[in-house]
Design brief:
Elements: H1 4-8, E1 13-16, H2 25-36, H3 58-70, H4 81-90, E2 94-100, H5 106-115, E3 122-126, E4 138-140, H6 144-152, E5 156-160, E6 171-173, H7 176-188
Parallel strand pairs: 1-2, 1-4, 2-3, 4-5, 5-6
Length: 191
């Protein structure tokens, strides 16, 4: 892999998603969507992120997503999330937590990050993470759309493996320990 764009990045910044990267958003989303329509399939059958189409309209779906994000501080984390972020920090990376959510959810998101002692340098909430790509080396996300755009920009694109991102050509992992080791190997090749 060509390492020139990585070395040209402004800093050693890594974008880290929240939903389905630092916590199990899919399970909570599924439970909430089932309250609207019992026919919604379980996460193991979400073979694309637009799985919800045909079960409800976009306004209902995004209302549920926003409701979950507004209550973020009520939810737990993946057990390996704190160590993953600490390891990135110890290796000198600038961690930008970047989530596809409304800026109105800044307070509950910050409370959740702090409650779980998740280390980070910046928090970016918006509906377009790609604006941050010019200043980063890697993207850790579950969205095949975000990962594809990162690859187009010659960034390291990785994350946890789920049915909706499987088979898209990304290097995906079963846990954050393996994500960290992959990133460590990728960047040790840069010298």
């Amino acid at each position: 892999m060509n390492s020139l764009p990585r070395k040209a990045a402004i800093s050693k910044a890594i974008l880290v998603d929240i939903d389905n990267t630092l916590w199990d958003f899919a399970t909570v989303l599924y439970e909430k969507l089932r309250q609207l329509n019992h026919a919604v399939p379980p996460p193991e059958d979400w073979h694309c992120w637009d799985f919800w189409k045909g079960y409800m309209d976009a306004s209902e779906f995004y209302r549920v997503v926003n409701e979950i994000h507004s209550r973020q501080e009520e939810f737990g984390i993946y057990p390996d999330a704190p160590e993953f972020l600490r390891n990135l920090k110890e290796f000198g990376y600038h961690i930008t937590i970047a989530s596809h959510r409304s800026e109105d959810n800044m307070v509950p998101t910050l409370k959740w990050l702090n409650r779980h002692n998740l280390v980070f340098d910046d928090l970016h909430l918006s509906y377009d993470k790609t604006i941050l790509f010019p200043r980063c080396l890697a993207v850790v996300d579950d969205s095949p759309h975000v990962l594809s755009k990162a690859v187009e920009k010659n960034l390291v694109a990785t994350g946890l493996e789920f049915p909706w991102n499987r088979g898209n050509g990304f290097t995906l992992h079963r846990d954050l320990f393996h994500v960290f080791n992959f990133l460590k190997r990728e960047f040790s090749q840069d010298g």
